[in-house]
Amino acid sequence: MARRAVPRFEAVKLTRYKHACHAMFHAPNEDKLFGRIPMRHTVLMQMRFDGRFGFPGGFVNLEEGLEAGLNRELEEEIGLDVRILGITEGDWAVTEVHDEQNFVSHFYIKKVTPEQIRQIETAATTAKDHGLESLGLVRVPVYTLPRDKVGGLPAFLSNTFIGTAREELLMGLEQEGILSHAEIQKALKASTTRRH
Ligand code: GTP
Ligand code: MN
Ligand code: MN
Ligand code: MN
Ligand code: MN
Ligand code: MN
Fold first, then answer.
1. How far is the CA of 193 from the centre of ligand 3 (A)?
2. Residue 79 C-alpha to ligand 1 middle, in angstroms?
């Protein structure tokens, strides 16, 4: 499954490819689990209809525009108030071309406030596609439980993800400074070498 990263302006010239856009919303989180384990950060993903984790978003037409298409999908899937929390070109993070599949995936990252995360979560259950394409937004555990060093992110990473959503999650965590490169490598190692 070869894929290559391309700049946004190059990708929109690929008119013979199918394009999809997905978005990661995240916010700082001061909460402490059981009153002592820092939650660190809130990162939203969704449980898809197919049982895989992914980001909200979907197929877009180049004619409607990448971000306009993404905002349409976000409204359908999570009832996002796109006038206030809509994705813009400035939120673009990475585009990857999958030549064998004639497919281009665009990934966006948007930092919001903890209050806005709650607004997004509340609205999501009223979305048109809630209970259909989207089985609900979930918060990704970005911490690792000190008790067994597997609970939290390592265990979460052993789930099944759609497309390259798992790689996008890891990239987002590092790029946004949510976790360090070393912390991510440690979680990946624990995810594959320890019992869950
Ligand atoms: P339909 O209305 O059924 O067409 O769904 P949709 O428009 O919401 O499309 P979907 O979200 O399933 O995304 C379209 C394609 O992008 C999927 O077939 C996957 O291959 C891929 N995809 C889905 N979610 C993600 C994601 O989070 N990241 C990446 N990189 N690809 C994804
Ligand atoms: Mn309890
Ligand atoms: Mn979708
Ligand atoms: Mn959709
Ligand atoms: Mn769609
Ligand atoms: Mn649809």
1. 31
2. 17
d(CA 163, CA 97): 12
- What would the DSSP string read from start to end of 100-133? GGTEEEEEEEEE--HHHHHHHHHHHTTSTTBTTT
What's the maximum distance between 2 C-alpha atoms anywhere in the chain?
53
Here the tokens at position 156 are 């979460």
Q: Provide ipTM, 2 decimals.
A: 0.96
Q: Which atom of ligand 1 is nearest to the CA of 77?
A: 8
Boundaries of every domain in the chain: 4-193
Convert the pLDDT of each residue in 58-109 to its tens digit: 999 999 999 999 999 999 999 999 999 999 999 999 999 999 999 999 999 9
Cβ neighbors of 116 (< 8 A, separation 6 or more) are 25, 27, 85
Rounded Cα–Cα distance for residues 59 and 103 (Å): 10
Annotation: CATH topology of 4-193: Nucleoside Triphosphate Pyrophosphohydrolase (3.90.79)
Q: Is 69 in the pocket of ligand 1 (CB under 6 A)?
A: no
Beta bridge partners, 98, equal 103
- Counting from 1 in the atom list of ligand 1, the atom nearest the Cα of 59 is 7
Average pLDDT over residues 148-174: 97
Look at ligand 1, atom 28, and give the residue with the nearest C-alpha.
165
